[in-house]
Amino acid sequence: MKSYRKPGNLKFWRNVSNGMIITFLSTLMSLVGLSCIVFFSDFSISESIMYYLVMAIHFFSIFIGSLIVSYFVGEKGFWLGAAIGFIYSIIILLLGFGYVQEIFFYQAVLYKIILGIVAGAFGGIVGVNL
């Protein structure tokens, strides 16, 4: 009987999961660092600026996770990065929906997903070419 599971496909998703782990660790370290800076500093940051800082951390973390995984894999950086960016963005949005009681779909949600994919794809392209 012929197996329908392709070893290359399994390897691809293993690399994506490694990228997700790197991305979440990068996000965690960056957010803890930002929290310490805000907590121990004398200046206050408005909520609107904090929102953009957190979004920048998310996209930078996607970029870093995609870059590192693509660097070690050496191929398919665009697809690895795009998959990492897409899955990470969906997970973060679902976690955000858990805190908001009503489900909403704004244009901003679509933009966050698209920007996550672009950041991941760009990180993957850069990582393969390093």
From TrEMBL:
Q: Which residues cross the membrane?
A: 20-40, 52-72, 78-97, 109-128
User: What keywords tag this UniProt record?
Assistant: Membrane, Transmembrane, Transmembrane helix
Q: Does the keyword Transferase apply?
A: no
Q: InterPro entries this protein is in? A: DUF3792_TM
User: What would be one Pfam family of this protein?
Assistant: DUF3792
Name by which UniProt lists this protein: TIGR04086 family membrane protein
